[in-house]
Amino acid sequence: MISAGIDIGSRTTKVVLIKDNSIIYSKVVNNTFTPIDSCRELLQELSYDKITATGYGRHLFADYFEAEVISEIKAFATGIHYLFPSVRTILDIGGQDTKAISIDQKGRVRKFEMNDKCAAGTGRFLEIMAMALRYNLDEFGEKALSSKDSANINSMCAVFAESEIVSMLSKGEDRNSIAKGIHHSIIKKSTAILKRVGIESDLALAGGVAKNMAIKNLMEESFNQKVLVPENPQIVGALGCALNSSKTNS
Amino acid sequence: MAVPNWKIPHIVESSGATIVGEEMCTGERGTQVLTSCNADTIDGLFDNIVDRYFEIDCAVFTPNNDRLEHIKEMNEKYKVDGVIQYSIQFCQPYQGEAISFEKNLEQDGIPVLNLETDYSQEDVGQLKTRIEAFIERIQN
Lengths: 250, 140
Description:
The complex is a heterodimer. By secondary structure, chain A is an alpha/beta fold. Chain A folds into two domains: 1-84 and 232-250, Nucleotidyltransferase, domain 5, CATH 3.30.420.40; 86-229, Nucleotidyltransferase, domain 5, CATH 3.30.420. Chain A is built from nine helices and ten strands. By secondary structure, chain B is mostly helical. Chain B has a domain at 7-20 and 59-139: Rossmann fold (3-Layer(aba) Sandwich). Chain B contains six helices and two strands, in the order H-H-H-H-E-H-E-H. Chain B has helices at residues 7-14, 29-32, 42-55, 65-77, 92-107, 124-139, and strands spanning 83-88, 112-117. Chain B has a two-stranded parallel ribbon. In chain B, helix 1 (7-14) crosses helix 6 (124-139). Chain B is globular, with a radius of gyration of 17 Å. In chain B, 14% of the residues are buried. The chains are: A alpha/beta, B mainly alpha.
């Protein structure tokens, strides 16, 4: 049996297919203005027996396709538990949300916390900051890590932080040091959310922002422990959905 | 439910849960304690009005053990599966109380979700994610 999972997030849509408990296919595409058409295109060549949806578009998806719907929190808990059974605390930083999830040894959600409606400290914030410093996303983390110094960024609001950066640059502050400061401010914001669920080892980082090595490295530095990052951190939610599809069928 | 304070109750009930009790300031709190009309003098009636105010278990009062007791009573009476502490933005007394209430209720094995929002509609997506995840947590 082939089980599918789809995670229609704020910035990208992810699909995962699993067979006999292993991943046989995965794909990440950028979102368009017509999410359902994108989903159709994404799924048309795939064959599967059952699909589960999560992400902001999960309910819309279920209106058009026969699908089960689960929350991103359950999806990430299930996905991470499959990849790293030892993990008890998950930090998922996506395009628009940051989630801290505490799970038990069976991968069930014990407690979770999310950022409030403001997308400060999420992937979108990082994108806007990279743009303000004229970095592309792939090099942003690397450049931040290359700096010894870290500028102190006070604003968490993307709009205010952008103005702050402009002022810093015109004061002669080093570009890479500002980049590091931005990464530090995301860690600070995420730590506050993580502390509310309690930080228990092992710790995993997932979501699109986990692709940024600076976030992982600075997190390890700040918590003084190893942070596990999946090979492809963006597909964890879709993977959790696929696992959910396989469970509900058996 | 008082208009416009229906956003959270609507999301909760359209996500598969049922609200069996509430103690919101736009809900039960207004009628939970009523002013007694039993007095022979105007001064006596004034005293009744004052007494009524002091019996309200709003978080601005401290200590405010009555409120937690009342929530626990409701939990038993209605066989509650979970508690949502829903506060309007900038209601600091309630948000302060929410921290100790959450610890207390979770210790009793009652899952708690804290939400802070206002009457606007732009965070409905985020709220729905949290409320659905909370319901999943209860069902597990």
